[in-house]
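Section 4.2 – Deliverable D4.2 (structural model, holo form)

The reporting period included a commitment to supply a predicted holo structure for the target in complex with pyridoxal-5'-phosphate. Inputs used:
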Amino acid sequence: MTVRTRVPLLDLEAQYRPIRDEVLAAVVRVCDSQRFIQGPEVEALERELADALGVAEAVGVSSGTDALLVAMMALGVGAGDEVITSTYSFFATAGCIARLGAVPRLVDIDPETYNLEPAAVRAALSPRTKAIVPVHLYGLCADMDPLLAIAGEASVPIIEDACQAIGATYKGRKAGSMGTAGCFSFFPSKNLGAFGDGGLVTTQDAALAREVRRLRNHGSETKYYHQQIGGNFRLDALQAAVLRVKLPHLSSWTAMRRENAARYRRLFGDALADAPIGLPIEPDGRFHIYNQFVVRVPRRDRVRAFLTDHGIGTEVYYPVPFHLQECFAPLGYRRSDLPAAEAASESSLAIPIYGELTAAQQDIVVQTLADALGARE
Ligand SMILES: *Cc1c(COP(=O)(O)O)cnc(C)c1O
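Output (structure tokens):
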């Protein structure tokens, strides 16, 4: 059955419409300057983002994936090292570790927050541990205090995968400002999305920022003289110009997502009080930015098919945890090794949460989900 989507998972057009003129003016400005690589737009964006994120240094890069890669390169991750991270994230988190020849030490998640379980991180430490990479999944910060304590005792850096968490806070501290480095993505579906790929590395450490700047430009500070081997991990001026238009709107867009999350909680409380559905939590002291609003349901794939048939966009983040991915079979993990992540991969379902989602659309989502779960009337 095909149905016109009544409630898409994400509606980028709705966000674009009111800022269209401003965006086009910014694009024209870059075109007229004919400066497309690095330059003043990128530098201005870096300053604006450093201010917004509460960090000393922000370095624009080509994607969130490359932010993780270049941060790990700058911190010396390589062959023979182990990097501890969550088994439950977007592929790049573990992929970058493996690409550098290091071994991802995959650990389980807290089933309530979907974030790294600190006790499991402690148990995974070894003399080869080179870094710990917590993921602030769906826009909620990982439990950073215990993670920072563990990293401090072991003298290893924390690289925050904040790709889904721009603007999220933990006990008043911003995502990406707590670890040795923070990594952000401007993939269009992230809360601050570019018109293509883009990313950012944040740090409080000027020497580390300098290293990241060098690595993003083939390990070179002076043209054609290379102190080290880097890559082309640069952010385009066109993307920077678009992001500069969007950045001033970010906090109001976040507020709209949070209002939608609060409305879902009320609606689910009314329509689904007795239904077997798990809602996302926001622990005390944490400010969730709801890049995704992920619910837990039984027979998830059937529920999802029902929603699709009724014109509601959903997604599964993520159907296969890293330790069960084919490409990581050589790491030797088995099913049931990391049960919380496996359970999440079978029951989690992201429903529409974008800022421009209307109350009427939310009603449709909740009522359709109630029907799917057989919980209505
Ligand atoms: C989006 C994302 C990335 C990768 O970002 P890209 O810009 O798509 O390369 C990495 N980690 C997480 C958790 C993400 O959500």
